[in-house]
Amino acid sequence: NKDLDNRVSTYQAMTERAAMLSTKAGAAFSFVEPELLSVSDDRLRELASQFERTDLFDFYISELIRSRAHVRSAEVEELLAQAANVARGAETIFTMLDDADLKYPAITDEHGQEVQLTKQRFARFMESTDRRVREAAHTAFYSVYRDHVNTTGASLAASVNRDVFYSRARRFDNCLEAALNGDNIPVDVYHALLDTTEAGLDGLHAYIGLRRKLLDLDRVRTWDLLCPLFPDENYEVPYDEAVSEVIAAVAPLGNEYQQALKDAFASRWVDVYETEGKGGGAYSYGNYDVHPFVLMNYNETIDNMFTLAHEMGHAMHSHLSNRTQPFEKAQYSIFVAEVASTLNEGLLLEHLLKKADNDRRKAFLITRYLDNTFGTFFNQVMYARFELRIHETVEAGKALSPETMSGWWRELTETYYGPDFGIDDLTPLKWSRIPHFYRAFYVYQYATSYAAS
Questions:
Q1: Which of 53, 87, 121 is the C-terminal boundary of a domain?
Q2: CATH code, domain with 27
């Protein structure tokens, strides 16, 4: 309920109470892993083999042994667990500011009507065929973040300092190693993703150059990146139609998957439309023994239909994992989570391409796929480079400031987008509105999963 209206203090209090209970539970059980690791690896495996269902705990035991060097004494573990609620402060402050407190101005739309800007309307205006409207929406939207940049700068800096504290407390070399350790991902994978992508930016530069040519612009600006190149083929997709298309698209995954997806929609797992105070964007959230819940802010665009396919990929992944696996093994890692979601997007694209009855519709869909590659792969790698830089800065004992972070964002944008892109003064503030930065080194997994799917 909290994310359905972040203005309601009752739900905020309930969420805080749940978080505090989680912290208490973590502190109460913090002695378990140090106690288990007080014996040798062989002795631990021997003890685990005495369970009636050894298959329930074999993976947990092997992961515990692998992470032995980073599990502290019972006293330290209890202290770290008790600090969890404090550690969430930076993300909580940003979320309340971004979802509940920020107010966006009105702009004049394509029809001369004054329209109050919201996050979802902003996304829709970015796809307008009227460049004046796109620029006005961009300016109005990011001006709000400019006016609060000291707050968002402080909250992000606090979040990075939290990451540094925990990485050092657990004896990792750096925050990147600490973040990747949970899924046993070598740090070389992260660096290889960044370095390989940056060595191959010519293709992205060429696409932005093509966009400049087709739109007949001197330079592509931020507000030109999402407008359709074939606007006559763009169309609105009512929610019920989007549901039907997504269900049809996943047919290659088999009848069982398709029927489960139909049942999910029929059982109303999805909270569909934007309302005041509702959390922005979209996500799927699942717990064991209850169906997943999906939050959308559906606005009848092609992009939102793909977002629906994406989030239902997460929901079905959770649903099928919970149905098939015991509680001890049902939780999957974030590193593979985005494969299930981006696969559904690819299936939806194939489905729509097969239905397309003319070359312009196919070109429209293909450019939509290229835009998705731009957003889900290249942009996320750029974000990952920024994230690495801000963590390395704090690890070196230096402070983060809004000016410094905006300067880095400008530099990275110019490098990634190439010579046909012209940057304005507000685009460098984009770091200040990315919620994923409060979950250290999360975004690179969009790129790896997109490549895998």
A1: 87
A2: 1.20.140.70
In a domain, 226, yes or no: no
Helix axes 334-355, 239-249, angle to 10 degrees: 100
Structural domain contains residue 443: no
Whether 445 is covered by a domain: the verdict is no
Taking a C-beta distance cutoff of 8 angstroms, is the pair 106, 116 a contact?
Answer: yes
Element (H, E) at 256: helix 255-266
Angle at 197 between CA 399 and CA 345, to 5 degrees: 105
Residue 30 lies in a domain: yes
In the predicted model, is pLDDT for residue 188 greater than 90?
A: yes
DSSP symbol at 220: B
Domain boundary among 302, 326, 355: 355
What is the tens place of the pLDDT at every residue in 396-429? 999 999 999 999 999 999 999 999 999 999 999 9
For residue 290, what are the β-bridge partners? 287
Q: What does the DSSP 8-state code read for residue 200?
A: T
Separation between Cα atoms, residue 232 and residue 228, nearest integer Å: 9
- Per-residue confidence (pLDDT) for residue 37, from 0 to 100: 85
Catalytic site residues? 311
- Provide the number of structural domains found in the chain: 2
State the pLDDT at residue 279.
80
State whether residue 431 is helix, strand or coil.
helix
pLDDT for 238-266, tens place per residue? 999 999 999 999 999 999 999 999 999 99
DSSP code, position 225: S
What are the structure tokens assigned to 213, written together? 């040519």
DSSP code for 310:
H
3-class DSSP state of 447: helix
Residue type, 59: F
Range of the domain at 285: 239-355
Per DSSP (E only), the strands in 279-425 are 283-287, 290-298
